[in-house]
Amino acid sequence: MTTFDDRERAFEAKFARDEELQFRITARRNKLLAHWAAEKMGLTPEETDAYAKAVVQADFEEAGDEDVVRKLLGDLTAAGVEIDEPAVREALADRMAEARRQFIEAQ
After folding, report:
1. Helices (DSSP H) in 1-107: which residue ranges?
2. Which is nearest to 32 in space by CA: 94, 107, 104?
3. How far apart are the first and last CA of the chain?
4. What is the per-residue pLDDT across 66-94, written as a single tens digit (0 to 9) for each?
5. 103 CB neighbour count, 10 Å cutoff
6. Full domain range(s) for residue 6
7. What's the burial of 44, exposed, middle or buried (CB within 10 Å: 0-12/13-18/19+)?
């Protein structure tokens, strides 16, 4: 039974590492996305940092990316930036690829 228990612990440890890595990549993606949106809105560097934190926090509202898309779309529209949901989703996908690349290079 020890071999089975060891395998089970190893799978649990791998799952925990994978989940943590995915969380960190998603948080990085959200920061990159916030910087992209802040540039479009013409925010100052200080406002950009605060906005990045707000976007990361918005991701905790519900599972998935809908909360982030909704926040960005609402903020960009309120700032007078003409943008639609597909453009925000495209930026989200682009920033996810960039966040993954950055994590791969960091390791």
Report:
1. 2-41, 45-58, 66-78, 85-106
2. 94
3. 35
4. 999 999 999 999 999 999 999 999 999 99
5. 13
6. 2-106
7. exposed
Residues 12 and 16: their CA atoms lie apart, in Å, by 6
Matching residue, tokens 């013409």: 42
Q: Considering only CA atoms, which of 72, 73, 22 is closest in space to residue 52?
A: 72
Count structural domains, the chain. 1
The domain spanning residue 8 has which CATH number? 1.10.790.20
- Structure tokens belonging to residue 5: 């228990």
pLDDT at residue 6, as a whole number: 83
Rounded Cα distance between 34 and 106, Å, is 21
